């Protein structure tokens, strides 16, 4: 089954063609991130306008892989080669969501194809079931060997959520952030450290430069809710703690490259320590056989390494899965995978953008 998937929940515009939930035939992503740089954060109006400009070129590019010399008409290639459409309906920015949702509905209307509404946050975890390829040749694709029950951690710009996955379809929400998401904590502290809107990636790059041997400062931040009994998270205190440290350093004229790297290092250690510790706890509670990581923050190299190392040290027999970094940040490939494994087609008349769509499925 081939699905044409569309994602436009925030500042990425993406379209993918996915076969049987696992095989990526194409996955095209356009981003307006750099356009928000001068404002120090994503401006919804700017993001929505960029979505409008990118959506048709991105869809056309994704479809090019399906076109043959005999059929070079977009509408015909959807009619002949696509079985269903999938689109992110929420959560996200209303202006951005509307662009993808209304475009997908229009395609459903003119081609008569079924359309599957997708929850963006739940879909992130299905990045773990994708197998990238650019080939249209028939190949045997098997699902990656993920054993259930699995614990799935989704860490993105707006969400930090833990789920129990009893099977590829059966999800149960276990806990989430009480305030800021992990990505939000990366983004807010990145701004305080002078990295503008480059967010978690800037923190990661700065922390990598730190020479821990010469480091003098040894700032230690608290690990919020790490040892409490729930599977909830709290990251909002981090930005206040960093602001305090930045102000102290500025007063002493010590706010320089070296101390910025130290702060970036400690922010990254704090966030990754909490995420890994609580996820492993959940895995122990639910006797999980695998841990799945996903969402934009899952691109963080320190987080990926820490998970692998902690699972190894725990001596638990748990496998670990995380998509390649390019499939962690927003893209339509996992939207198509989710739609295949867990989605249900709906009449296009009833599909609508839902900016506050919930993720707490019981
Ligand atoms: O999933 P995503 O692309 O968009 C949302 O659905 O929110 O996640 C974006 C988040 C941002 O907060 C960004 O700073 C963070 O993912 N991120 C990272 C890294 N790459 C992206 N955080 C830490 N380290 C990274 N390498
Ligand atoms: Zn996302």
Describe the structure.
α8 (257-285) crosses α9 (301-314). The chain has 11 helices and 11 strands. β7 and β8 form a beta hairpin. The mean pLDDT is 92. Strands 5-4-1-2-3-6 form a 6-stranded mixed β-sheet, sandwiched between helices. A 5-stranded mixed β-sheet has the order 9-8-7-10-11. With 362 residues, it is an alpha/beta fold. Residues 120, 124, 156, 295-296, 330 line the site of zinc ion.
Features:
40% helix, binds 5'-O-[(R)-(carboxyoxy)(hydroxy)phosphoryl]adenosine, binds zinc ion, 362 residues
Biggest sheet overview: 6 strands, mixed
Number of strands: 11
What order do the SSEs take from the amino end to the carboxyl end, as H and E?
EEEHHEHEHEEEEHHHHEHEHH
Determine the mean pLDDT.
92
Structural class: alpha/beta
The kinds of small molecule bound in this structure are: 5'-O-[(R)-(carboxyoxy)(hydroxy)phosphoryl]adenosine, zinc ion
What low-confidence regions span 5 or more consecutive residues with pLDDT below 50?
Answer: none
- Fraction of helical residues: 40-55%
